[in-house]
Amino acid sequence: MATTTTRPAARSTSVENALAAAKLPTYALWVVFGVSFAVVGAVLLLIAIASEAEFNYAGWLIIGGLLYAFSTWLFSSLVEGRRRGMDRFVTALVIGAFVIAMIPLISVTWTVVSLGAARFDVEFFSYSMRNVTGEGGGALHAIIGTLEMTGMAALISIPIGLMTSIYLVEYGRGAVARGITFLVDVMTGIPSIVAGLFAYSLFSIFLGPGTRTGFAGSIALAVLMIPVVVRSSEEMLRLVPNELREASYALGVPKWLTIVKVVLPTSIAGITTGIMLSIARVIGETAPLLIAAGFTASMNYNLFEGRMSSLPVFVYTQYANQGNPPEAYLDRAWAGALTLIIIVMALNLVARLVARTFAPKTGR
C-alpha cells in the first residue's frame, strides 16, 4: 500500500518540476525586446547613412515590433512548447496593435496642447473677435455659441432618442418597429453637411432665404444626435435582464412604472455614456453649423436671432482666413481646438460622475 501511494506523488512532483523548468525567465522577454529593436535600429541607421537619408523611425518601430513578436514565438516554442509560444506571439501582436492605435492619439494630443498653449490666456476666454484684425482677441463668442447650440441640440435629441429606444425595446413590434429601425440606420450614415442643408432649408422656408440662427444650428446637430442616442440607448435597454421586469410585473407594478423605476435605473450608466458619445459626435461639427448658423465675430447670446459662431467654425475661419501676422491666427485656431478638447473631456467626466451616482447599488 505504501508503494502504490508514493508513486503517483513522485510522478506528479516530477511533472510539476518539468513544467516549472520549461519556462522562460522574466528578463528573457525584455532581452529579446531590446535586442530586436537594437538590431533593427542598427540596420536602418546604416541604410540611412549609406543613402544619406533621415532615420526611418516608423520603419524601426514596425519592423522591430514584428521581429520581437517572431523572436518571442521562436524562443518560447523551443523552451516552453508550441502552445505557449503561440500565446506569447498573439500577446505581442495585441500589445503592438494597442501601441499603434495610441500613437495617433498621443500625437494629436501633444500637438494641440503644445501649439494651443500659446494663446491659452485670460484674454482668449474673455474677449470676442469684434474689431480684431491682428493679434489679440479671443473666442468667448464661439465658446458661448458652442455651449448654447450643443445644449439645445441635447434638449431636443435626448428625449426623442430615449423615448424612441424605449418604444423599440418595450413596445415596438411588427412593421412599424422595423420601419423605425431602418430609418434610424439610414440617419446614422447621413453626411453631416446634409443635416446642415436640411436645417438651413427648413428655416429658409418659414423665415425667408438666407436665415441663419443658432437654433437652426441646434436643429442640424439634433438630426445627427438622435440616431446615436437611439442606437446606444436601445442596446443598453436590451441588456437589462427580463427577470427584473417579470419580478416587477409579478408585484403588480404597471409597465410604465417598471420602465421608469427598474429598467431605466439599471441601464442609466450605459445610457449616459451613449448620450455623451452623441454629444462628442456633434460638438466638433463644422459644415452643418457653417451652413445653418453662419459665423460672426461678435457676441450673440440669442439662439433665435442672428448668426452665431461656434468653436469648430472659429477654428476653421482662423486657419482658412489668415491675416497679418498669420501666427496670431494660427495660435487662436490651435487654442480653440484645445478648448474644444477640454470641453469634451469635461463632459465625459461629468457623464461618468452622473453614471456612478445614479447607477443601481449592487452591494448590501
From TrEMBL:
<keyword id="KW-0813">Transport</keyword>
<feature type="transmembrane region" description="Helical">
    <location>
        <begin position="180"/>
        <end position="207"/>
    </location>
</feature>
<feature type="transmembrane region" description="Helical">
    <location>
        <begin position="90"/>
        <end position="118"/>
    </location>
</feature>
<comment type="similarity">
    <text>Belongs to the binding-protein-dependent transport system permease family. CysTW subfamily.</text>
</comment>
<dbReference type="GO" id="GO:0005315">
    <property type="term" value="F:phosphate transmembrane transporter activity"/>
</dbReference>
<keyword id="KW-0592">Phosphate transport</keyword>
<dbReference type="InterPro" id="IPR005672">
    <property type="entry name" value="Phosphate_PstA"/>
</dbReference>
<dbReference type="GO" id="GO:0035435">
    <property type="term" value="P:phosphate ion transmembrane transport"/>
</dbReference>
<protein>
    <recommendedName>
        <fullName>Phosphate transport system permease protein PstA</fullName>
    </recommendedName>
</protein>
<feature type="transmembrane region" description="Helical">
    <location>
        <begin position="27"/>
        <end position="51"/>
    </location>
</feature>
<dbReference type="InterPro" id="IPR000515">
    <property type="entry name" value="MetI-like"/>
</dbReference>
<dbReference type="GO" id="GO:0005886">
    <property type="term" value="C:plasma membrane"/>
</dbReference>
<keyword id="KW-0472">Membrane</keyword>
<dbReference type="InterPro" id="IPR051408">
    <property type="entry name" value="Phosphate_transprt_permease"/>
</dbReference>
<comment type="function">
    <text>Part of the binding-protein-dependent transport system for phosphate; probably responsible for the translocation of the substrate across the membrane.</text>
</comment>
<keyword id="KW-0812">Transmembrane</keyword>
<dbReference type="Pfam" id="PF00528">
    <property type="entry name" value="BPD_transp_1"/>
</dbReference>
<feature type="domain" description="ABC transmembrane type-1">
    <location>
        <begin position="143"/>
        <end position="351"/>
    </location>
</feature>
<dbReference type="InterPro" id="IPR035906">
    <property type="entry name" value="MetI-like_sf"/>
</dbReference>
<keyword id="KW-1003">Cell membrane</keyword>
<feature type="transmembrane region" description="Helical">
    <location>
        <begin position="57"/>
        <end position="78"/>
    </location>
</feature>
<feature type="transmembrane region" description="Helical">
    <location>
        <begin position="333"/>
        <end position="355"/>
    </location>
</feature>
<keyword id="KW-1133">Transmembrane helix</keyword>
<feature type="transmembrane region" description="Helical">
    <location>
        <begin position="213"/>
        <end position="230"/>
    </location>
</feature>
<feature type="transmembrane region" description="Helical">
    <location>
        <begin position="138"/>
        <end position="168"/>
    </location>
</feature>
